[in-house]
């Protein structure tokens, strides 16, 4: 039996049937039957008299709000309030979900303001994929409540707990629906800020469900008027799906939702959160300093292009992500089987997105090959230049002429020790780059853009100076043997390293 929906996240549902025992006097946490009104202990789930599913015993159950909404039972409870199923008093077939704030929070202006914000923000957004809100009001004793539609189905988080992960087609279909809902929200200047599987509810046929976004309680509205409910430096959201700028408490925009949607797609395809752990602080530190494992290392069936979409959506810097949620939606269109079956096959923008992704995939493969080659050439070139310079210094230390040579033992020492040291250092950085950079397409491109000019410039200057030395000694001075003059190798190393350091400083990212 599918559970009934709730208005918002972090609610505990009590609708699952279980074996029933005898009725008891109401106690803390006891449950009540919505049919016969008998009460039972907390561990009961089904009424033994009529088989009805039990809900939490609550003094408001059976009461009527505004002569319109009769509270039938408790659907769930969270830290901030309870959610009730309500029946319309004049149209018995109409049912609603009523989210009611706990009385103690009604006296806290900031909590109450966020509660009202949730109702206003949700009611403003017109989308099939956003939970519909009908009204917001207060009970006679001052408890604020929201009246919304009652959905049948289950949270995406619960669906993942049962299935582990989802196939590509259904996952993309759900995420594209999330994109459409967020596009409607962003068009109103509303940023959700807490997108996660717990805030996505699947309704209808769970084989081909309709996704609904819940809980705009900590949404950010760019209205330009009214008091700010959050300030820069305040961290709100769920760590595992929180963008780096949100984790830092910085000012955010709609791109923080794009990051979260990428993290949701990561979770539904791999069966794992991008960042997970027991301590929120440690999760936040990982969000800021680490990249999640590549999706394909956890689920090899994920296409390369989908992995690139996830990585781009979850880029650490907002400017490296999709700049509009519609871009993410269009990028996923070629992987949505329903798009083709509905007659919107991969043509037009979808086809363009597919071609663009293929070009990007080929470019990233080339980037990785070029990065590996550049690093290898740079390491070998650095080793060769340093060995030649040290050999020249040894010759100069003995006052050697241009005909002087180093000994065989010195030659072996230079090759094994100096060359080996350079290559060992290069290997250390290569291994570190493989762990930190190689798994992330954006970082591969960024490192290549910085490393290639350094290596090409340093080796280019060294090679150009070699040509100039040969021209100077053999053509101008007509002393070809002078090319072997010891100080030349030292000067060439200085020129090459100097150019490489200058290039590195010029290309260094701004602080």
Features:
511 residues, alpha+beta, Phosphorylase Kinase, domain 1, Transferase(Phosphotransferase), domain 1, 3 domains, seven-stranded antiparallel beta sheet, three-stranded antiparallel beta sheet, 15 strands, 46% helix, transmembrane, EC 2.7.11.1, serine/threonine-protein kinase
Brief characterization of the structure:
Keywords: ATP-binding, Kinase, Membrane, Nucleotide-binding, Serine/threonine-protein kinase, Transferase, Transmembrane, Transmembrane helix. The chain is built from 14 helices and 15 strands.
Describe this structure in words.
Mean pLDDT is 80; it is low at 9-28, 223-235 and 343-350. The chain contains 14 helices and 15 strands. The chain is of the alpha+beta class and 511 residues long. The protein has three domains: 12-149, Phosphorylase Kinase, domain 1 (2-Layer Sandwich); 153-222 and 231-346, Transferase(Phosphotransferase), domain 1 (Orthogonal Bundle); 362-506, no CATH class.
Order of helices and strands: EEEEEEEEHEEEHHEEEEHHHHHHHHHHH
Helix content: 40-55%
Query: Which structural category fits the helices and strands?
Result: alpha+beta
Number of helices: 14
- Provide the domain count: 3
CATH class of the largest domain: Mainly Alpha
Produce the secondary structure layout.
Layout lengths: L11 E2 L17 E2 L6 E2 L14 E2 L7 E2 L3 E9 L3 E8 L6 E7 L7 H16 L8 E6 L5 E6 L3 E3 H8 L4 H20 L2 E2 L8 E4 L6 E4 L6 E2 L22 H4 L7 H16 L9 H10 L5 H4 L5 H10 L11 H8 L4 H5 L7 H49 L10 H29 L4 H36 L10 H20 L5
Helix pairs in contact: 3-5, 3-9, 5-8, 11-12, 11-13, 11-14, 13-14
